[in-house]
Design brief:
heterodimer; A: mainly alpha; MetI-like fold; 2 domains; 15 helices; B: alpha+beta; 6-stranded antiparallel sheet
């Protein structure tokens, strides 16, 4: 009757340790964003800044790079990528999960192959192609390569397979076309899978540096991580306080979005059986 | 010309024949129960009828018109699914309205936002709402219209599914085990309601079930399907009293019919003291005798009947089931007795087993029923051996 079981204490301790390890860099980043230059370069490692320098660092971060443009670019690019990925993957996954056609097996193999090919392998030919059609330095170059996500197809496929066939049969008898079934039955019931996928997609593309670095050379189209690169270049890479403040600003939208919609995200991930 | 005719429907999945030439005719307003063990092809038949699946061969005629190449949506067939298949994101009322909206509103009118601006849709929507209210009043679900399927009980969901199927006045009604997800009490109650609704609608209904009691109690005619064949289509009484095939006799009736191996000789089927004259010429050889458990009598004193032993007694309230074994042949015999008949019986005791020759049915080696002179003649008091 007394106290908490030992197993639970051990489990809690291990989880706390893990959480601390993962959170430590972020906490240190917050702390650094509030330090003066001299504070950062002292020998003693302290989490609490000696002088609270947040305002100055943030002002510098906002001043040196067009932060609003960066964030707006990030939102546009992530939004477009996510929209197209879902618009392509849902009908595709529906067809593969619920319709019988001869190429279904072949398509499954192609999806699996697609999962195995990283963007780095196709980056060069894509770059050359975008250069030929003069689309470098545009939203198209940032968005187009990611509109078809095999990962999304794969994930929705698993989710749709678990949807009862009878539901689709009933919809057909009620007079819906296949497209109607996707729009009226599949999509409204696929929200858990869509939210779960949203995390993977938005986090990956918000934080992506590799591809924007290849196709973007003008600041007007820079995504947030690319903007940080410019920031470092502009500051000769030594004003860490301001850099951390800038980093804090660009990670904030994701953190805020996750905290606000945390419950739905977790629901979505557990419902689709996808973890970690 | 019947309201619905199936002609030689065949279907195979990956070389595995599920339907082997099924033909069936339904009269207008008839309630046909399609019954058979799981995997006999009855659900496949229903799906083909609905247009959700295609037959490899054969044709479907509705009111004389061939439906084989008509899309599911245009057949005007309604189906109630075992899982109810209600749209989980819509309320009960919206669920019931879906088939009407798909039928009465144009593609443009169904679009969100833009659709509500188009002319004429307001009246159509009002008509749909009125029909939904009428149907839900008929099924006594008016108070549930704003609830989503997840907030309803199994019985309520089943009613909503029925309402969704009935609301558009289909020309054929298909039901795929609609009661099997309900608890036992509700199931018996729902049987009566479905029969009543069917009578009101007057639409030919095909009702698939694996529960023979449901089939016998609800249907005008029962179609027994086993292994992809439709073995018999007849009134429930005929199915029970006069089965055309040994599998039909085995499937229908609880407890199961006693099947005893017997021999034919000189046109007579014989087992111990039973001799039955066959109406048709049959080569001498093994046949099967079928005797319903309620016709078997037990003599506790063992002085009459065939010598046997009671292995087990089951008391079921209004009746007692006695599982016996014949001493000579080792065949198991089940007797269904009234409680007062079973008063002196104890498990393990030797007993005389009386088999009525009058009530015995003879089945050929391939399972087909062989008519006997006795069964064809006038009914007499059963003569026991």
């Amino acid at each position: 009757m007394t106290g908490i079981p030992v197993g639970r204490i051990v489990r809690f301790a291990l989880l706390s340790l893990g959480a601390l390890t993962i959170l430590a860099p972020y906490i240190f980043m917050i702390s650094t964003a509030g330090k003066t230059q001299s504070d950062i370069f002292t020998a003693a490692l302290s989490l609490i800044p000696q002088h609270f320098y947040f305002a100055e660092n943030f002002a510098k971060a906002l001043d040196k790079v067009p932060m609003a443009t960066l964030l707006w670019n990030g939102v546009v690019v992530c939004g477009l990528i996510f929209f197209f990925q879902v618009a392509v993957a849902i009908p595709c996954a529906y067809a593969m999960a619920k319709l019988k056609f001869r190429a279904a097996r072949m398509m499954m193999v192609l999806v699996m192959l697609g999962l195995l090919v990283p963007i780095h392998a196709t980056a060069l030919p894509l770059y050359v192609a975008f250069d030929r059609v003069s689309l470098l330095n545009s939203y198209t170059a940032l968005v187009a390569p990611f509109t078809i996500s095999v990962f999304a197809i794969f994930m929705f496929l698993q989710f749709f397979r678990a949807m009862p066939d009878d539901l689709i049969h009933a919809a057909r008898l009620d007079g819906m076309s296949e497209l109607g079934i996707v729009a009226r039955v599949i999509v409204p019931n696929a929200w858990p899978a869509v939210t779960a996928f949203a995390i993977f997609s938005v986090v990956a593309h918000w934080n992506d540096l590799y591809w924007p670095l290849i196709v973007i050379s003008k600041q007007a189209y820079a995504t947030p991580p690319l903007g940080l690169m410019y920031f470092r270049a502009a500051e000769a890479g030594d004003d860490y306080g301001a850099l951390m403040a800038a980093t804090l600003i660009i990670t904030l939208p994701l953190v805020a979005a996750f905290l606000l919609a945390q419950k739905r995200f977790v629901e979505g991930i557990t419902m689709t059986g996808l973890k970690g | 010309m019947g309201a619905l005719s199936l002609r030689g429907l065949s279907k195979a999945f990956a070389g595995n024949a599920v339907l082997k030439g099924v033909s069936l005719d339904a009269e207008p307003g008839e309630f046909i129960a399609l019954v058979g063990p799981s995997g006999c092809g009855k659900s496949t038949l229903l799906r083909i009828l609905a247009g959700l699946d295609h037959a490899d061969a054969g044709e479907i005629l509705v009111g004389g018109k061939d439906m084989s190449n008509v899309a599911a949506a245009d057949r005007n067939v309604a189906m109630v699914f075992q899982s109810y298949a209600l749209y989980p994101h819509l309320t009960a009322g919206q669920n019931i309205a879906v088939p009407l909206a798909m039928k009465r509103l144009s593609r443009a009118q169904r679009l969100p936002l833009i659709g509500s601006l188009l002319p004429g849709q307001r009246e159509t929507r009002a008509g749909i709402a009125r029909d939904v209210r009428e149907m839900s009043a008929l099924l006594k679900i008016d108070h549930l219209l704003d609830r989503k399927p997840g907030q309803m009980s199994g019985g309520q969901r089943q009613r909503v599914a029925l309402a969704r199927a009935m609301v558009r006045h289909p020309s054929i009604f298909l039901m795929d085990e609609p009661l099997s997800n309900l608890d036992a009490n509700l199931r018996v109650h729902a049987r009566g309601e479905i029969v009543e609704l069917h009578r009101r609608a007057g639409v030919p209904t095909l009702y698939v079930t694996h529960d023979q009691a449901e089939a016998l109690s609800m249907a005008d005619r029962v179609a027994v399907m086993i292994g992809g064949h439709l073995l018999q289509l007849a009134a429930p009484e005929t199915i029970y009293n006069d089965p055309a095939h040994i599998e039909v006799a085995r499937f229908v009736g609880q407890p199961r019919i006693n099947i005893i191996p017997a021999q034919t000789e000189n046109g007579r089927a014989g087992f111990e003291g039973i001799r039955l004259a066959l109406m048709e010429k049959v080569a001498s050889g093994p046949v099967s005798l079928g005797i319903r458990p309620e016709f078997v009598k037990l003599a506790p004193d063992g002085r009459s009947g065939l010598a046997g032993r009671i292995e087990r007694l089951e008391f079921l309230g209004s009746e007692v089931i006695a599982h016996c074994r014949l001493q000579a042949s080792g065949d198991a015999i089940v007797a269904k007795l009234a409680p007062h008949e079973a008063r002196d019986l104890i498990a393990g005791m030797p007993v005389g087993i009386l088999l009525p020759s009058e009530q015995a049915m003879v089945f050929g080696p391939e399972g087909r029923r062989l008519r006997t002179a006795a069964a064809a003649g006038a009914r007499q008091e059963p003569a026991y051996v």
